[in-house]
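name: query_chain
kind: protein
chains: 1
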Amino acid sequence: MNYYKFTPLIKTPIWGTESWQISGVPGNETPCDLPGAAPITLNTLVREQQGRLLGEANYRRFGDEFPLLIKFIDARQDLSIQVHPNDETAHRHGKPRGKTEMWYVMESAPTAKLYNGLKMQITPEQYKAMVDNDTICDALAQYSVKEGDCFFIPAGRIHSIGAGCYLAEIQQTSDVTYRIYDYRRPDKDGNLRQLHTQEASESIDFTVLSDYRQHYTPKKNESQLLVDCPHFSTAVYDLDEPMTIDYSELDSFVILIGVKGEGTLTIDGEDVSFRAGECILLPAYIKEVRVNGTLKFLETYVLSE
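structure:
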């Protein structure tokens, strides 16, 4: 196969909907439909294809578990205030790895907002007191957001997606989240959701920055780098004319995430439709893709260490 598409896993937490588009999280692996064969899970595909799929260096680094998790998140209510641990802290708590992630905002409500990072210096003791007295949001940087906004959330940064946001999320393959504050709202059974105040306090990076937004200049028909970190590199393309993308020097799989419009990809002479709301996984051996159409998409991959 020159490309792979997966059946998303749809989850409906109390705040809205999240679609796990490409996932190798154990117990939540997305199935791949192969022509003429029974569906197989993503990690089974990795075990079968190994470096041919991931890239040789990536396969040595990650083994049989796919390293990225791709989601679309549709928030109809505010998500909890939360933080993710880094790998070291996650290991201390018996988790396989931490979680660094990023958000790319798609067409959202005019009132959409989110939290990302601290806007004031607080101590771990002040953090716990502000959680207890319902003022923790006062310490957080809040942003009104629109289509095209991008935020990087390294492990340790407090964050929350707000009501009205619709976004693509790219992250490490991990489902570890420490819930800091949940507005004292009940779940579907009338119970308050569990908080992880102590685990979160061990994970939070209390550094304060002046701005947490990723700044870039939107341009037509060329790659615009959004995030480059040890866990993934992500760029955005906004095309209204044909483009050939060269992957000949890249030893990694590539995921293309459609965020607006539609078009056609030509992969080793085969045409495949591609539109907003879809994700396509390209194996590491694919060296060139031709894109036609009016289409905006994200491109993400993992560079070997």
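note: The mean pLDDT is 95.
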